[in-house]
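Take a specimen:
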Amino acid sequence: MFLSHLECSSCGLRHDWSRLQNLCTACQKPLFAVVDLAKAGGVLTREALRTREKSLWRYRELLPLPAGEEPVSLGEGGTPLLRAKRFADEVDLWIKDESLNPTQSFKARGMSVAVSMAKYLGAKKLAVPSAGNAGGALAAYAARAGLEAHIFMPRDTPRANIIECRELGAHVDLIDGLITDCGAEIDRRKEKEGWFDMSTLKEPYRVEGKKTLGYELAEHSDWQLPDLILYPTGGGTGLIGMWKAFDEMETLGWIGQKRPRMFAVQASGCAPIVHAFEAGEEFAVKVPNPHTCASGLRVPKAIADFLILKILRQSDGGAVAVSDEEMICVAREVGAREGLFVAPEAAACFAALKALLAAGKIASGERVVIFSTGSGIKYLECYGL
C-alpha cells in the first residue's frame, strides 16, 4: 500500500490515516487520501493493467487498503463505456454504464473501498443517510463484511431502495424530511450508538472508490480524456473523485495536461450548484423545499460544494438544471434509441446535452461522455407505476 496520509481539501491539515477519521478536525471539511505516486508508479504501470481483473481493485496500488488485506468486494467496477448509436448525431457520444455494478449503481464503487477501510480500521457499525442507492450499497457491502449497517432514508425514498436495504439485513429508519435531516439524525446518535459515519465525503475513502471512474474512463479511451463530461450531481463525489484521478494520472505520466470540461447536472427543483455557479459564488446556498423525482439529486446542500464549483470553473465547464418532465421524457428516448433503461439522474444528463447543443456550448464532433449512474428499474414510481 502506498497511502501516505490524509489531507484536508480546504485548509491542508494532515491527518493520520491509520485510525478512523471523518472530517478535518480543524475546519470540518472533507479529507482526501494522499498516495505516494512516485512509489506506486514504480509498481503499477499502464501496461500492467492489461492482464489484471476487470474490477476497480485492478488499481490496488492507487487505493488505500493495505497489501495483504482482502477487499470487501462484490465485483464492482469494470463497467462498459458504450458508444451511443442514435441519440445525438452532432457529437461523438459515449455512455459509461454504471448500472452494471453490484446494487445497480455507481455507489458500489465508493462503498467497496470505504467499507474495506472501515473494517480494517476497526469499525463495527456503519451508518449513512441515503435517498436510495448509497443505502443499498452500504447494506450490501456491510453484509459482505459482517458489519452492522444503519441506514436513514427520507420516507419518500423509492420503495425499491427501501426494500433492498431491508432485505440485505440493514437497520432502516425512515425520516419525515430530506437527506440532510437523515444526516442530522445520525449526527445526534452516532457517538452514543457507536456508529461510524459513512456519509458522502464525511469520510475519506468513498471518493477513492469513485476516482476509479476516472481511471477506467482514461484506460478505455486509450488514455485520451474526452472533451466534455456530463455528470449528475447531488453530493458530487464522483465528479470530485474523477478530477482527483486526472491529477494523479498526470503525475504518474499516464495522461497529459488536457482535462475535460466538467458539467454538473442537477434537477431544477434542487439546483444549489447551478445557482451558485451562475452567481459566481464559492459556496452554495441551501435550497429550501427541494423537490425532484430524481432522489439522488435531492441534496439541498453538498458538504463539498466548494470543490465542485472549483472544478467546474477550472475546467471551463458549467452547471445545468433539468426539469423532472424533461428527465422522464428523455429517459424514454434513451431507452428506445440506445436500449438503456436509465435512472432519472442519468436521464437529466441526456436532457442537459440537448440543452447545451441547442445553446451552441458544445461543438460538432466533440467527444462527450455521459455517466449513467444507475438503473431505472429502481425508480418505477417515476415512470408511471
